[in-house]
Design goal:
372 residues; alpha/beta; D-Maltodextrin-Binding Protein, domain 2; eight-stranded mixed sheet; three-stranded mixed sheet; 11 helices; 31% helix; 19% strand; elongated
């Protein structure tokens, strides 16, 4: 089943996960021929329902996790609404969902608000659950590969390079038959963690070529805008001379640009993206269970793909009831398990979290408790 406005998904865990956005369902959590996602033998199951909302970048990964968990735990129902990171954080802070998925960790002001939402003034946890490249996709007849330095990419999205045969693009693509065609950048219409990471990269790597501050909302008047990663993918795929940015599992069959890093051009790949995360420190000033990362978008390290996002699972350290704490804890333990990370990587091309880092995160998830 394909929802209107969504691209076909590799993992179709449609039981319950779309219940917040539609009334449709499925008799099976898997598509025909799809192997069930791996689940640990000792997975902790809960009875009842768990609600979450947020990042559309982790939409495909979440389908996979929900499919695996619900097939192993028949009495569990997990509802995830991929409304975008900003809306997900808002719903979490308003106590409308049990946890949020966000491509940006809670900022200082949101961390303060979280202490009002979480029971007893407890803090929220920023748990990195999903690491994936942000791909630059394009639709240009007769061109199936592009090399784009960060400065050129910034000028394209800032609408200062407006034709595909511009000399600055041609300089780095001498073998491409670039047409005299208007460039149509497609950007996000919603508050988006993917946008925050993409503009964060441009601000760090492109220097003066990108005069805007990083943020979750697009900083200029858009040429064309779309809702969610799926919306951008559809708009680029159906357009002519279009270019956009999406979480890598939404690329479909579209070509992706190679990005300039340290004198070379690097293809989008989970292995090259993982190098950024592995070298990034945790944000200063947080509590011991806050694992927000300071990503080094401006890296010049060879073989590193610099445009990445980390989707955080944002939860309370303390909930009102033991059942609620158990549901959040049990599902996030599966997300962070070796099996959960491998299942998501197989379906989406994400980079599985390193073992030592996973164990550190699992210690924090284990600390989730209740006031009871």
């Amino acid at each position: 089943m394909t929802l209107p406005g969504h691209r076909p998904l590799a993992a179709a865990a449609l039981v319950g996960v779309l219940a917040l956005t539609s009334a449709c369902g499925s008799d099976s959590a898997l598509r025909n021929g799809q192997r069930p996602p791996a689940v640990p033998d000792d997975v902790a199951c809960f009875d009842g329902s768990l609600s979450a909302a947020g990042s559309s970048a982790q939409e495909n990964a979440m389908y996979t996790w929900v499919a695996g968990y619900q097939m192993a735990c028949k009495d569990a129902l997990i509802l995830y609404d991929s409304v975008g990171s900003g809306a997900g954080r808002s719903q979490f802070l308003q106590d409308a969902v049990d946890f949020a998925g966000s491509d940006a960790a809670l900022d200082r002001r949101e961390r303060e608000r979280a202490r009002d939402r979480c029971v007893g003034g407890a803090p929220a946890l920023n748990i990195p659950g999903y690491v994936v490249p942000i791909a630059v996709i394009f639709q240009l007849e007769g061109v199936d590969s592009l090399n784009l330095p960060p400065e050129t990419l910034a000028k394209i999205f800032d609408q200062r390079i407006t034709r595909w045969n511009d000399p600055e693009i041609a300089e780095h693509n001498p073998d491409a038959d670039l047409p005299d065609l208007r460039i149509t950048p497609v950007t996000r219409a919603d508050d988006s963690g993917t946008t925050e990471n993409f503009t964060g990269y441009l601000a760090s790597a492109a220097g003066e070529a990108w005069p805007h501050e990083p943020g979750g909302t697009w900083p200029t008047r858009p040429v064309e805008a779309a809702q969610g990663n799926s919306g951008i993918a559809e708009a680029v795929d159906g357009g002519r001379g279009t270019i956009g940015y999406v979480e890598a599992s939404h690329t479909g069959d579209m070509p992706t640009a190679s990005i300039g890093v340290g004198g070379e051009f690097v293809d989008v790949a989970p292995e090259s993206a993982a190098r950024v995360v592995a070298s990034s420190p945790e944000r200063k000033g947080g509590h011991r269970h806050d694992h927000a990362l300071e990503l080094d978008y401006g890296t010049a390290e060879a073989g590193t793909y610099p445009i990445v996002l980390v989707t955080y699972e944002i939860a309370c350290l303390r909930y009102g009831t033991a059942d609620e704490a158990e549901r959040v804890r049990s599902f996030l333990e599966y997300v962070l398990s070796a099996e959960g990370q491998k299942a998501a990587s197989k379906e989406t091309g994400s980079a599985p979290l390193p073992g030592d880092f996973r164990r550190k995160l699992l210690d924090s998830v284990a600390a989730i408790s209740s006031a009871e």
